[in-house]
Design goal:
Blueprint (H helix, E strand, L loop, with lengths): L7 E8 L3 H34 L1 H16 L2 H17 L4 H12 L8 H21 L13 E3 L8 E3 L2 E4 L2 E6 L5 H9 L2 E11 L2 E11 L22 E6 L3 E6 L3 E5 L8 H18 L22 H35 L2 E5 L3 H5 L20 H7 L1 H13 L6 E3 L1 H4 L4 E2 L4 E2 L8 E4 L2 E4 H10 L10 H24 L15
Parallel strand pairs: 8-11, 11-12
Antiparallel strand pairs: 1-5, 1-7, 2-6, 3-4, 4-5, 6-7, 8-9, 9-10, 13-14, 15-16
Length: 501
């Protein structure tokens, strides 16, 4: 049985504050950053001392040996002993709570005990990654601490009657009159705790409160009519073939392919211009840090000087990235609602976008002897964020205790299978159309069709289901392709629409 976390959702509201209140909040965020770094520094030192302990190293070796032999009893005993060793060095969440309390007392006018405990919990999550995943803990730089939160809505950071209270600060919020979602949420749900968030918008600090609400979010309504914006279809299948920049969706009633967040690349020209300006400024203010051929010196500790114009240009670049992220998130949320309105049984391939974004390791050459580029799909994935869409769909399905059905890509091979011949046929990446029987179908749409007709075991497609639904799919497919032909628009080459015009 799947263990589900308690349902919760977030309402974000802008704080309407004066300049003096903003100054106090900025000061408190910096104090919170100091407490975070102090606690993390203590935890890292204790972790180093623990690694030097002979007893700890002996138990760790024993755990690795027991893991190889799959001795469950021995594993449990050693795991318990390792946990006791960690606690003897102060490496547990509640021990970090006790440690941060000593330092929080010096700033009690600004940071309350509940908020400091949540900071210690954040440190503990970072320490857990060091302990169990082998990752590295990172300290927060000046100005890089972006949120503080409380433990409940009864003490510390509190929200009551459209006002946020925190250690003497009274911060009103802005709620739009026609925002039925916020009004319904506040009326029907309880607030678990509050989180204050700092954002930089157009070069200025802006503060928001995020109310973490208990339960399932109400459906959004149209302000003028009060009607629901989206109604999700239950027990209907939807197949999704996700690419680095495009998505193909097939259901019983709809077939369509489109680019993910299509207007995002419009920001690329501005970004390139600003990045070139940053590079020129950095070279002019730090000429001794570069070699004669223009590359950065290595093997020597370099000191960098940045001009005021450099700092302003850097803020403009950050603003472009913020706009892009906001646009992508908004479009992905709307697309996720559209997908779930087609059905709540969502089938998708297990994709490793992080691996696709990395450069190729193997060096290859062309027939002419030139070295091929090692670039893969990093730029497309960065501009269209396919993993974010998958996460949004997963989150929305979680409200109804559903999950995305991820098929086994090794056995499924949706891009190679032909349900008519019941064979797997390898295709090159540039081949965007497949011949299925006497028909030509778009490759990604056909893959989504096969995913929709997946077997319950998620290992392969169900040929009988494919035969039953193929005629309907073909009609919808041909109609959609005809509609795309009529659109006076340039489509990505990966969609293969140009090949049939």
């Amino acid at each position: 049985m799947t263990k589900w976390k308690k349902n919760c959702f977030i309402i974000e509201l802008k704080l309407l504050i004066d300049t003096w209140q903003k100054d106090i909040l900025l000061k408190r965020f910096e104090i919170a950053r100091t407490l975070y770094n102090t606690t993390l520094s203590y935890a890292v030192k204790q972790y180093t001392f623990m690694q030097e302990s002979k007893h700890y190293r002996k138990q760790l070796r024993g755990y690795q040996k027991a893991k190889k032999t799959n001795d469950s009893k021995e594993l449990k005993q050693i795991a318990k002993e390792l946990n006791n060793i960690r606690q003897s060095f102060g490496l547990s969440e509640y021990q970090l709570h006790a440690y941060i309390k000593k330092h929080q007392h010096n700033y009690k006018k600004h940071i309350d005990s509940n908020t400091s405990q949540k900071i210690a919990s954040t440190v503990w999550r970072a320490v857990q990654d060091v302990l169990f995943k082998g990752s590295k803990a990172h300290f927060k730089r000046y100005g890089m601490f972006h949120s503080v939160e409380g433990k409940s809505n009864k003490a510390g950071i509190r929200f009551k009657e459209n006002i946020v209270y925190w250690n003497g600060l009274i911060l009103p919020v802005r709620i739009r009159k026609q925002d039925l979602f916020v009004k319904e949420s506040l009326a029907l749900h309880t607030i678990k705790y509050c989180r204050l968030v700092k954002k930089v918008i157009r070069g200025k600090h802006t503060f928001y409160v995020q109310l973490v609400m208990d339960g399932i979010p109400p459906a959004k309504r149209i302000p003028s009519t009060g009607a629901f914006r989206h109604s999700y279809q239950k027990q209907k299948r939807v197949g999704i073939d996700m690419g680095p920049s495009t998505i193909a969706i097939v259901s019983e009633e709809t077939v369509f392919i489109q680019q993910l967040a299509p207007e995002v690349p419009l920001l690329e020209k501005q970004k390139r211009r600003l990045l070139r300006k940053l590079d020129r400024s950095r070279r002019s203010t730090n000429p001794n840090n570069f070699k004669k051929d223009g590359t950065i010196k290595h093997g020597v500790k370099l000191r960098w000087t940045y001009s005021k114009n450099y700092q302003k240009t850097k803020e403009q670049v950050k603003e472009l990235y913020r706009k892009k992220a906001s646009y992508i998130k908004e479009k992905h949320g709307a697309l996720a609602n559209k997908i779930l309105s087609l059905g709540d049984e969502v089938y998708i391939e297990t994709m490793h976008f992080k691996g696709l974004a990395k450069r190729a390791k193997e060096t290859k050459t062309t027939i002419q002897g030139k070295i091929q580029s090692k670039k893969r799909f990093g730029k497309s994935i960065g501009n269209h964020a396919p993993a974010m869409l998958v996460e949004i769909i997963h989150q929305k399905l979680g409200y109804t205790k559903q999950t995305i059905q991820k098929v086994n890509t090794i056995t499924f091979r949706a891009s190679q299978y032909n349900h008519v011949t019941d064979r797997y046929e390898k295709k090159k990446l540039h081949q965007r159309w497949s011949q299925i029987g006497s028909h030509f179908v778009q490759r990604d749409l056909y893959s989504a069709f096969l995913l929709m007709n997946s077997d319950p075991n998620l290992q392969q497609t169900n040929q009988d289901l494919c035969n039953k639904t193929f005629t309907t799919f073909l009609e919808l497919h041909n109609q959609h392709i005809e509609d795309l032909k009529q659109v006076k628009k340039t489509f990505p080459l990966s969609m293969g629409i140009q090949q049939i015009k």
